[in-house]
Every structure is written in structure tokens, then in C-alpha cells.
Amino acid sequence: MIRTTALALLAAAALTAPAGAQSFMGMDQVSFDAGLGVTYGPDYMGGDDGEASPWFILQNLTIGTDEGEKQGFAVLPSFGYRGDRESDDIDYLEGMDDIDRAGEVGVMLRYINGPFTSYGTLRKGFGGHDGVLGEIGTKYRYDANDKLTLWTAAELQLADDEFTGTYFGVTPGESASSGFRSYDPSGGAYAAEISVEARYMLTPNTSLMGKVSYGRLLNDAADSPLVQDKDQPSISIGVARRLNFRF
């Protein structure tokens, strides 16, 4: 399962900003890491078998001016992507319906105070699920030297019953074909996650990225008969470019 929160609309605004524009939303430059890598983690939410999948890197957005990163509040777009779940590929889920790939579109409210960043997101899904979901979290940034930057983060993930029903529920029809008991989970906090991320600059614009995270399913999601393991660790590594756009 792949999940990523991106800020592509802001990048698009940077790309389309007219030459000579003095500022946009109170800043004159925006930069972020974009690249590709690989993630090794559970084969589905609640699975206990490991699986490698692509890691689409689009993160560490910095909004600023020539004086440095812009502090305080910002309202930004938020996007997500979730891979499909094919029951034929997972022996434990035999008889369950497949879930298509899903896109998510919404908004992020972010607050930066020195090295601390707090945020909340809200997104609507389409495709594989039609639920509403989001995250509340905080990150701490530590610049070890001019090449190595570390982030530690803690996040609570929330969703409505449309989302939890899609990924953790069992309909009567699925119960008959799979042998799982029928299960209709409620919405709310469905997972919590802590992580450590590192970026090592190989060149001024190219970096080696790494991330280790530990997630745990909560509440009705954790009690689903589909869940083999509530603990959901993962490790990711990839290469990214630092893209910078000035207005």
C-alpha cells in the first residue's frame, strides 16, 4: 500500500507564475524533494507479509523568501494515492473483493515554528474508496550539518466509516465467499505512526533519502478479522532532486 501527501498544485503555481512576479501568497520561492525509491512494508493494511513497492518521493516542502523559510500558518493542497488490493495475490484474503487504486484530494493546514511543524489534513477519496480521511501530526527538523537533515514525526490517522469499511470491513457477500465473519467498522482514528526520515545531499540538488516508520492500527480497524498484525513497520530508500522555483 502506497500513501503519499503531495503539494503539486503549489509547484504548478510556481511553474506558471509570470516572470517578474514579486511574490505569491506571501513568499517568493518554493522548494521540495521529488524522486523515486522503494518501500518494504506490509503487503496490505493489516498484513503480516512483507512486500516491496515503489516509493514516490514528493515531500519536504519549503515555502520561503530570501530571508529563510516562511514561519506561521499556511493553507496548502493535499493529495494522496493508495495502491490496489488484489485478493488473488494475498492468500489470506481469498474470497474478498478486490479494491482498485485510489486517489485523494483535499487541503492541509500547516503551522511552522522554528524547527517544529504541525499540520492537519483532510482529503476525499475517489476510485478505490469514496471515504473522507486525514492526518494530524507534528515533525521536528534537525540539520546535523550542511549535508545531512533529519526529521522525526508522529502522526494520528483518521477516517470515516466509508474508508474503514472499504479496507477493514467484510460485507455479507464477502463473508459467504471468504469465510470471514461480517464486519462493519466505524470511523475515527484508525492508525498512529512514528517515523524518522533522513536526507543526505550527494550534490547541491541531488540527495539520498531514507525513512523508517512504525505504524499501529487502532480501534475498529485493529479489530478487523482481515488484520493479521496490528503493527505496520516499513523502511524506504530512494534518490531525489531538490527542486526550487522562484517567483
From TrEMBL:
Keyword Ribosomal protein: no
Location(s) in or outside the cell: Cell outer membrane
Pfam families from the UniProt entry: MipA (PF06629)
Family: Belongs to the MipA/OmpV family.
Domain of life: Bacteria
GO cellular component, one term: cell outer membrane
InterPro entries from the UniProt entry: MipA
Keywords (A to Z) from UniProt: Cell outer membrane, Membrane, Signal
Protein name: Outer membrane protein
Signal peptide range: 1-21
Cited PANTHER family: MLTA-INTERACTING PROTEIN-RELATED (PTHR38776:SF1)
Keyword Nucleus tagged: no
